Amino acid sequence: MTHPDDEISICAWIKRLVDVGAAVHINWTHNIAVREREARKVAAILGVPANNLSFMHAIDGSVCDDMTALLPKFRELVDRVEPDRIACGAFEQGHLDHDATNWLVNQAFGGPIFEIPFYHPYSRRLQTMNNFSIHEGVERIGLTVQEARQKVDVAKCYKSQNIWSVLWWYEVLHYAKFQPAQLRKRELMRLQRPTDFRVPYHPDPIRREVEACDSWRRWLAALDRANMPP
Asked: What is the pLDDT of residues 215-226, one digit of tens each?
């Protein structure tokens, strides 16, 4: 995960894995003291052992500018944990930090990587939450009533953030438009295909909107720096 609270998007999936005895590790690229405490509380609710949690201490909003320094940490983490697969936020142009974490995972790990939709695109004021713009290959799990309640409880653990109110108002807006968001009813993931990180992974017109953004230009500049030889 990039930020403590991103795991809300697949907390039921995480709990199911723990319940069947899978070894689950969670790493957050960014953390500050209060958000780390909240993340540890959530991990305990989901049954992930404290020894399986790690934090990279990257600065919120600047992960893409620090990819060169962060990459050795990601490689060390992969070498230590030896994961069978990794799930991370999608390369979806919703937040530069999320895209940077996705790039770092792809550079550090040669196994299967599964993408989770958070929100996109940063070219629009009202972003699409927890859904892909391209639905090919998407796996969906429906949540039980108990899992839906737990997702709400997990979101409410992040009292330092406004994530609970954002999710609540997003669902209200979509119900008003007769387009239920169903954030508490399902979780989505897809196997990440080989990715050209210099091309937004969206259909037009979203792709063109993203390419016209200052955030996209900042991303390309960050890639140029990260790909420079030492």
From this structure: 999 999 999 999
